[in-house]
Amino acid sequence: DTEVTQTPKHLVMGMTNKKSLKCEQHMGHRAMYWYKQKAKKPPELMFVYSYEKLSINESVPSRFSPECPNSSLLNLHLHALQPEDSALYLCASSQDKGGGNEQFFGPGTRLTVL
Amino acid sequence: GENVEQHPSTLSVQEGDSAVIKCTYSDSASNYFPWYKQELGKGPQLIIDIRSNVGEKKDQRIAVTLNKTAKHFSLHITETQPEDSAVYFCVRSGNQGGKLIFGQGTELSVKP
Lengths: 114, 112
Prior knowledge:
The structure holds 2 protein chains of 2 kinds.
Chain A: E1 4-7, E2 10-13, E3 18-25, E4 31-37, E5 44-50, E6 53-57, E7 64-70, E8 73-79, E9 87-94, E10 104-105, E11 109-113
Parallel strand pairs in A: 2-11
Antiparallel strand pairs in A: 1-3, 3-8, 4-5, 4-9, 5-6, 7-8, 9-10, 9-11
Chain B: E1 4-7, E2 10-14, E3 19-25, E4 32-38, E5 45-51, E6 56-59, E7 62-67, E8 72-77, E9 86-93, E10 100-102, E11 106-111
């Protein structure tokens, strides 16, 4: 299994809602990532988890809260988002977080904040 | 700095022609340079990568060259096909483990 899966594919939420994005991989990878991608822009790194511990937080607002319950799962909890947070949220994984490891991306969750 | 400069931003070619995308960077510490292809509605997929101890790498119709002295690397696609139409990102490894620095992307359109 060389796939990263993400659910849901699409999500529409109001600014007062609480929702979660989920990501799963069964490749035995020990590094997992969240990226945000706006239309016609490259992915921007948000968080890196290594061996289930938060390794990098790219100064992301606290309304985004990541969680790594085990080595196969990565969640992104959303609360009190703003319309400008609407974007494609991509999850990725790699063997470990060392430079030179291929990152495998999931298909993304298209988020719309009303 | 961190940025990767990528050109052109859009590229339109006829089926069968070659396509070339060029990138430059400034951080000499980078040693891993992957290229990702992103089709509409999908996540980026690695198509080829090159490491700093290699000057050129080829995989069927795709080739990548790296000039570490000049700090630039390029993607070459030969005999383009309509299914090559996508956005291509050049990427370099960042200073923090796991961090990738993406170029701004090239939207390639292959016309039948």
